[in-house]
Design brief:
The chain is an alpha/beta fold. Helices cover about 50% and strands about 10% of the residues. The longest helix has about 35 residues, at about 540-570.
């Protein structure tokens, strides 16, 4: 109490309060009906002192308050603030939040789709929009005082992360940067880099969750705590460990383990549940349990779109109802209001009525395949408490403001685009961070469903680890190169790129590698002493043995290459209708060739999924009714046709009945053929003169007769391995020094060869490339320069442009895509040929696509849907033929529209491409594609 203070202390306190009241922070704090946390106050004070800030804090901790303070400062000082986000949905949400707080006249929105009040002092935008503004030297940058980069940890994203670094490097020095990140383990390193490129930057890290998180495992009817508190220690719950040990020791019946069991999967699951005392609860059981425990609303993460939709259906079939009649009526009212602009003819196609039934019961899915409007409605109803169970893919964890009381993880494995892999501690933290609503819940709950084979110790390690390092994914692109050279010249551009976070991390890592090289050299000296032989030079003897081993390995590889070449040559001779015996692999046995996969089928020779360097990839129907595209790994030996069969013209690979009938005919026609037997060839090493000579030299060497020869040889082998490792480390040091600048030099050399750059000058073609942003920027520019799209009507131009943006989710064994006729087919084939030429050039200049630089092959899979939509066909027929969810269709259409807009600006004058690009853009921007709920 102030009464207990001395007069001097009371005076000092009064002065401190007066000083605080004079700051911009004091009136800002009054805007909120809760006290700010210490980390928020610290970051806001640093901002007001003129410093940049990096705030790293858990999901839901309120770090966006710091971004909102930057907005407040900008408005107070009469300056501008740009608030950037990684995804359009988050931009829309932030725009609405800021417009409510500061007034619609002061806040604008700029995304690829929308432009609302673009001259406002506060603009919310996607990060790409700001990058494009910086390169274009936009007038909107004048008066800019603050830039907030929300979810700045996105710079780790291998596809889009470079944009964040481009913005950070190129922002004018007068702009104060506010970086908001999830909890990362190397925030200090990132802060050091920001300090280097942006000036004085305060790093504020908060590990504290405002709402405590409890971890559980749900098995059968029981919810187990993952951890048990023992004094100051936290240990894995012994009850859970005991249960896991008992359940994992149980084995299924012999008929379950036997391959080809006649039981259907559902029957086997029922049998497992009957035998087990603990089982994986069904989705309706999980929601029932959470409801009974008072743990709703909940988000259940399922790493599959189809799984999310199936979960909703399962809950509906189980009769779950989480809303009363008043809530159901309110849901219907909101949904009808928000979807009023969607044409009635499209609602049925979009599954509107099934979706509405789930919402009325308080249950919904949320994934990228949904119509954006539907996703936004789900988010709004969830925040209002009218939807209580959401089944979502992990994309929901990326910044959308949708906190829940509980988060459920069905499995700890997900598909990462290449394989099924365990989720990382960072991903686990990001997903479970949704649990616990600040100001509503006393505690949050993360529930992992019990799965057979689960290790509670490993789960505890996953839940207890907080390692989520920020790794740069920055690489110079073609567009970046011409923009940089145009603004700064080649030399200064090179120096600018050397300031990237990628190079900063590479330089730091070199220090540790150099130390390891020194330690290795000390070890090599010790190994050299241990392998010394009194009879002669054991290092020389060791080299002879190693040369013999290398020669034997080389011959074995040559033999394997010859066998692969013979097998490939045999595959090239196959024709549709050939009956073959697949010698090995998952699909070994009888198969009927549907498509030889040599590039001579429908569509361009290099359609997606087939690459010349991989050799033929025949599409076959197996005797087990599966249609699969096989690769060279399935044919280690040459294969020859056993029979010929006619493939009916009516055969449809997607029809189970068609597959069944043709597979039955295949077994009848060729089932009597025994698998061909292949003789093992004599090893090439047996007749090799070099091997014979080396063996003779080894026997004659003095060290060959040493009693301790094998002991010396073991030390020599260690010496050789360490020497090899040391050379690799030295090469790594060379590779990491000036890596970004070296890549920039390679990109610039290719652009110079193609005539886009001439020394420090950007040519007219280069200026066109500077206006094309996207993964296939150079391919688009080459198509414009070569006039590939001249004379194409708008709908056919839309089909061609779709190949620049679309990336299929389908497997490599999918059939070649359907293409529009007319000039579009020839233009698409020419685009693939141009890509082949660019691909060869990139190889010459050592530009590697796997490192994130270079042009991927254009994907023609969306050409037919884009053409049909631009032609004016209805959503029903387009989606049915496209065989893709409405959300994906809308997203790809919007990306086509974005690139068409760029082409309309970049296309040469005097041609009809610019005019037709604008027409194509307008013809695609209709119906559900045009609808937006922002504003």
């Amino acid at each position: 109490m102030t009464e207990d203070l001395s007069p001097a202390e009371r005076y000092a306190l009064a002065r401190l309060r007066a000083a605080e009241q004079a700051t911009a922070l004091a009136p800002f704090r009054d805007l909120y009906d809760f006290d700010l946390d210490e980390f928020q106050i610290e970051a806001c004070r640093a901002l007001e002192a003129g410093k940049g800030v990096l705030v790293a804090a858990p999901t839901g901790s309120g770090k966006t308050i710091v971004g909102e303070f930057a907005v407040h400062l900008a408005l107070t000082q009469g300056r501008k603030c740009f608030y950037t986000t990684p995804i359009k949905a988050l931009s829309n949400q932030k725009f609405n939040d800021l417009a409510k707080r500061h007034g619609a006249d002061k806040v604008g929105l700029l995304t690829g789709d929308n432009s609302v009040n673009p001259d406002a002092p506060v603009i919310v935008m996607t990060t790409e929009v700001l990058r494009n503004m910086l390169y274009a030297g936009s007038q909107a940058l004048s008066g800019l005082g603050y830039v907030v980069m929300d979810e700045v940890h996105y710079l780790s994203d291998r596809f889009r992360g470079a944009v964040w670094e481009e913005v950070i490097i190129h922002l004018p020095p007068s702009v104060t940067l506010v970086s908001l990140s999830a909890t990362v383990s190397n925030a200090e390193e990132f802060g050091d880099w920001l300090d280097t490129v942006r000036g004085d930057t305060e790093v504020i890290v908060s590990e504290h969750r405002p709402v405590p998180l409890w971890q559980h495992v749900l098995g059968g009817r029981r919810m187990y705590d993952l951890f048990e508190e023992k004094g100051d220690k936290r240990e894995v719950n012994p009850d859970l460990v005991r249960m896991a040990r008992m359940e994992n020791s149980r084995v299924g019946g012999p008929r379950d383990r036997r391959r080809g069991s006649p039981r259907r999967e559902a029957e086997r699951e029922r049998e497992r549940r009957r035998r087990a005392r603990v089982w994986t609860p069904s989705r309706p059981e999980v929601i029932d349990k959470l409801d009974a425990e008072g743990l709703l609303p909940a988000i259940t993460f399922i790493f599959s779109r189809a799984g999310c939709e199936a979960a909703v259906q399962q809950c509906l079939y189980a009769g779950l109802r989480l809303n009363d009649s008043a809530a159901r009526a309110r849901v219907r009212e909101i949904v009808e209001e928000r979807t009023a602009d969607i044409p009635d003819t499209d609602l049925h196609v979009l599954g509107y009525f099934e979706w509405l039934e789930g919402l009325e019961r308080g249950i919904a899915a949320h994934h990228a395949g949904m119509l954006p409007t539907f996703k936004e409605v789900v988010e709004e109803l969830f925040v209002r408490g009218l939807v209580k169970a959401v089944f979502a893919t992990e994309t929901l964890a990326l910044g959308i403001n949708m906190p829940a009381r509980s988060v459920v993880l069905e499995k700890l494995v997900k598909w990462n685009g290449e394989q099924h892999a365990d989720i990382t501690p960072g991903e686990f933290t990001q997903l479970t961070g949704r649990a616990g609503r600040r100001g509503i819940d006393v505690e949050g709950h993360a529930v992992v469903l019990w799965q057979r084979g689960m290790d509670p110790g490993a789960l505890a390690g996953l839940a207890g680890t907080r390692t989520y390092p920020l790794r740069s994914s920055f690489k110079p692109s073609y567009n970046m190169a011409v923009n940089l050279v145009g603004q700064f010249g080649r030399h200064t551009s090179r120096e600018l790129l050397e300031t990237s976070f990628a190079q900063f991390q590479a330089d730091r890592s070199v220090v540790g590698i150099s130390r390891q090289v020194q330690r290795n050299e000390e070890g090599l000296e010790g190994y050299r002493e241990s392998m010394t032989c009194h009879l002669g030079d054991f290092e020389e003897y060791s080299r002879l043995r190693r040369r013999l081993k290398d020669r034997e390995t080389e011959l074995a590889k040559q033999g394997a290459v010859q066998r692969r070449a013979q097998a490939s040559a045999a595959l090239e001779k196959l024709k549709p209708g050939d009956v073959i015996h697949v010698p090995t692999g998952k699909f070994a046995g009888l198969a009927l060739v549907l498509d030889p996969g040599t590039g001579g089928g429908r569509g361009p020779a290099h359609h997606r999924g087939w690459h010349q360097q991989e050799g033929p990839r025949p599409l076959v129907l197996t005797a087990q009714r599966q249609v699969k595209r096989l690769g060279s790994i399935d044919f280690p030996v040459p294969v020859e046709p056993l029979e010929r069969m006619r493939i009916p013209k009516s055969f449809n690979a997607r029809s189970p009945e068609s597959r069944r009938d043709l597979a039955s005919a295949l077994r009848t026609k060729a089932g009597h053929h025994a698998p061909p037997r292949h003789r093992k060839q004599r090893a090439a090493a047996a007749d090799d003169e070099e091997i014979a000579r080396l063996r003779t030299e080894i026997r004659r060497h003095p060290c060959h007769g040493c009693d301790q020869r094998e002991d010396h040889a073991r030390w020599a082998e260690r010496y050789h391995r360490l020497k090899r490792d040391t050379r690799q480390l030295e090469r790594k040091i060379e590779g990491r020094t000036n890596t970004i600048a070296r890549t920039f030099d390679q990109v610039s050399a290719l652009l110079t060869e193609l005539g886009y750059l001439r020394g420090d000058e950007v040519t007219e073609d280069g200026r066109r490339l500077a206006r094309l942003y996207g993964e296939l920027d150079l391919l688009a520019s080459e198509c414009l320069r070569d006039g590939v799209w001249e004379g194409l009507p708008p709908s056919e131009l839309a089909a061609c442009v779709s190949a620049l943006v679309y990336e299929s989710r389908a497997a490599d064994d999918a059939l070649p895509p359907k293409l529009p006729g007319g000039k579009a087919r020839g233009a698409l084939e020419e685009m693939v040929r141009i890509w082949g030429r660019l691909d060869a050039l990139e190889e010459e200049h050592r530009i590697n696509q796997t490192e994130g630089v270079g042009q991927r092959e254009p994907d023609l899979g969306f050409a037919w849907p884009a053409y049909r939509w631009a032609e004016g066909h209805g959503l029903d027929s387009v989606l049915r033929e496209a065989d893709m969810p409405a959300g994906d269709f809308v997203r790809w259409c919007k990306q086509c529209i974005d690139v068409l807009g760029q082409i309309a600006v970049a296309a040469p004058e005097g041609g009809d491409v610019a005019k037709n690009a604008r027409r194509a853009l307008e013809s695609m921007r209709r119906g559900v594609v045009a609808y937006t709920s922002v504003g």
